[in-house]
Design goal:
alpha+beta, Arc Repressor Mutant, subunit A, 12 strands, about 40% helix, globular, disordered C terminus, transcription, HTH_AraC
């Protein structure tokens, strides 16, 4: 069961603060937590220092592994789901204050930027030190490399149904033909629809979902053996081979290197 995230200031509206950049720290309890669909005038960087966060926007799912962040542009509707015991920072940025993408994306976070975010969350928006830290953060953030850690989804009802079913049961190994029967399409029609709406083949699209789920669960403390089983792999070796082929390194090394280097070695 998901609980709402505990916001540190119940009556605080980030859009009322005119500072170019502010940061808020939110700690998650032992239960997964969720912020339902909402939007801000300010852009938002969702950064996980520990655990993981999945952001849902109209065009896709974006994974926030430890020491990475997801950039959500101004006024874009989104929701956030955090793993249990996650340590999350929301950084809110005034429109036009930094040269950041106009699309949602996952950004590597350098050790310097990580410390700036932590420090910024500890000072009041009207503090002179907060303004100084914010200026440095706004200069550093546009330099961060982009990572390809997202699942493109679609508003097309049949694909949305498949995506939601696979998100609930990622171990489902139904074939493209079996999914086509469930949504009343021919196999070839469903194959074309997936490519048209997501830019990926069905197999690559499902693999991307597996990567997102795997990173989310590994970041929350699950073992490689547990994640492998939850995703329906016949062996741990098969799961590690898939992970290494997709992301260049086995799971343990991938996560440890992100923690050490801020993810800069894994940009796309």
């Amino acid at each position: 069961m998901r609980q709402p995230l505990r916001w540190p200031w119940p009556d605080f509206d980030v859009d009322d603060v005119l500072a170019p950049a502010i940061a808020v720290r939110v700690d998650v309890s032992e239960t997964r937590a969720e912020v339902p669909d909402h939007w801000h005038r300010k852009g938002q960087l969702v950064f996980a220092l520990g655990g993981g966060v999945t952001c849902r926007v109209p065009s896709g799912l974006w994974m926030v592994p430890p020491h990475c962040g997801v950039w959500v542009p101004s006024t874009m509707k989104h929701s956030n789901i955090a793993t249990a015991n996650a340590r999350i920072f929301f950084v809110y940025i005034e429109p036009g204050a930094a040269d950041l993408p106009d699309r949602c994306c996952t950004l590597s976070i350098s050790p310097l930027l990580r410390e700036l975010i932590v420090e910024l969350s500890d000072c009041a928006p009207d503090d002179a030190r907060c303004g100084f830290l914010g200026k440095i953060l706004l200069a550093e953030l546009p330099r961060m490399p982009v990572q390809q850690l997202h699942l493109p989804i679609s508003s097309e009802p049949r694909l949305r149904r498949i995506a939601e079913a696979l998100a609930e049961d990622p171990a489902d190994r139904s074939t493209l033909s079996e999914w086509a029967n469930r949504v009343a399409l021919s196999e070839s029609s469903l194959a074309r629809l997936v490519v048209k709406e997501t830019g990926l083949t069905f197999g690559r699209w499902r693999l991307q979902l597996h990567l997102i789920v795997a990173l989310r669960e590994l970041a929350s403390g699950a073992s490689v053996q547990q994640v492998s089983g939850d995703l329906g792999y016949e062996s741990v070796t098969a799961f590690i081979t898939m992970f290494k082929k997709a992301l260049g390194k086995p799971p343990a090394r991938y996560l440890s290197d992100i923690a050490q280097h801020g993810g800069s070695a894994f940009s796309a």
